[in-house]
């Protein structure tokens, strides 16, 4: 099962224990902690180690930046440190970031802010005033720059626990809103259908019943869900099973006459993969949708069952299927 990957960014020697504490906390939640000292970052030979750190930031979900009093190793690409650049990379990629600054450093930053233009000022809690310049840049950002001051790793853990809980609650809320938006879209489509119907009745009195029937068939729950599940972007209607077979045949779906599985419950169509190594797809349509004569039944949207229409990928057994290129093993090194 996929789990959130959380990058822990900081200088190493002064914050070694803090990094370990936060990594243990992250893993206790079932998430994956990414730290360069643990071999979580794959280093190659084509680029510098810092480049691979920035590249790994692309593969994580969250970055936790811990800023203390040491500036650390300076980047080869800018005036900032490597840990500063890791945070900047995450912000550019729009990753969720949490910025934790050691309390004494953050307090002394206020002194720096009052004396930006002054020269020859020595600071007690940092070994390089660039740390305060970097905090200046962070505070000037308009978003994704929430900063908390910490004294111990326990402060960071408590903060992250609250933030992760907030993220989860936000996700649940968005999922609920997505369902509401889906309902709004469906209601809007229904409204447009009714508008078309009203316009039609106003414009013509000829064959009213036939026109109304076509509009209703195009908005039959079966047609709506078939369009959605097969990604069909044009209007159509289905009167009976034979029309359905012809329609799906034109889309490349082959009707299985001798379906041995679930034959009493559903009809089966199959569309093969483009090669022997690609999965085929199965479309099962419940027989409950049709009467004894094969005519599509009238069904209310409220009575729709998701099991009426099911599409599945059918895996091929690739153990006996080999590409031509793989049959010649003379050049393999093992």
Task: Write a structural description.
- This protein is of the alpha/beta class.
- The protein folds into two domains: 5-171, Rossmann fold (3-Layer(aba) Sandwich); 205-317, no CATH class.
- 42% of the residues lie in helices and 14% in strands.
- It has ten helices and nine strands.
- The chain has a five-stranded parallel β-sheet with strand order 2-1-3-4-5, with helices on both faces. A four-stranded antiparallel β-sheet has the order 6-7-8-9, with helices on one face.
- Helix 1 (16-28) packs across helix 6, helix 2 runs parallel beside helix 3 (82-92) and helix 6 runs antiparallel to helix 7 (208-218).
- The longest helix is centred in the middle third of the chain and has 51 residues, at 153-203.
- The radius of gyration is 31 Å and the shape is elongated.
- The protein starts with a strand and ends in a 7-residue tail after the last helix.
- Residues 318-334 have low confidence and may be disordered.
């Amino acid at each position: 099962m996929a789990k959130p990957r959380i990058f822990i960014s900081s200088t190493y020697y002064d914050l070694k224990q803090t990094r370990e504490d936060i990594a243990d906390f992250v893993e206790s939640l079932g998430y994956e902690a990414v730290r360069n000292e643990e071999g979580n970052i794959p280093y190659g030979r084509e680029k510098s180690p810092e480049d691979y750190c920035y590249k790994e930031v692309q593969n994580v979900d969250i970055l936790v930046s811990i800023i203390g009093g040491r500036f650390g190793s300076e980047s080869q690409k800018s005036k900032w440190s490597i840990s500063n650049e890791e945070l900047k990379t995450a912000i550019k990629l729009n990753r969720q970031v949490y910025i934790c600054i050691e309390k004494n450093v953050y307090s002394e930053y206020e002194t720096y802010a009052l004396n930006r233009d002054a020269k020859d000022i020595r600071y007690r809690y940092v070994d390089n005033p660039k740390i305060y310049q970097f905090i200046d840049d962070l505070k000037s950002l308009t978003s994704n720059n929430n900063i908390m001051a910490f004294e111990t790793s326990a402060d960071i853990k408590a903060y992250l626990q609250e933030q992760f809980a907030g993220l989860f609650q936000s996700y649940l809320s968005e999922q609920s809103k997505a369902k509401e938006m889906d309902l709004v879209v469906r209601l809007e489509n229904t409204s447009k259908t009714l508008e078309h119907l009203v316009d039609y009745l106003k414009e013509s009195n000829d064959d009213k019943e036939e026109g109304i029937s076509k509009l209703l068939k195009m908005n039959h729950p079966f047609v709506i869900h078939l369009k959605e599940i097969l990604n069909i972007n044009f209007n159509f209607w289905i009167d009976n099973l034979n029309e359905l077979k012809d329609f799906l045949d034109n889309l490349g779906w082959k009707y299985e006459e001798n379906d041995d599985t679930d034959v009493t419950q559903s009809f089966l169509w199959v569309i093969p993969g483009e090669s022997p190594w690609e999965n085929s797809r199965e479309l099962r349509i419940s027989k409950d949708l049709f009467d004894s004569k094969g005519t599509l039944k009238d069904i209310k949207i409220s009575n729709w069952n998701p099991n009426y229409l099911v599409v599945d990928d059918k895996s091929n057994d690739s153990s006996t299927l080999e590409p031509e290129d793989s049959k010649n093993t003379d050049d393999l090194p093992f």
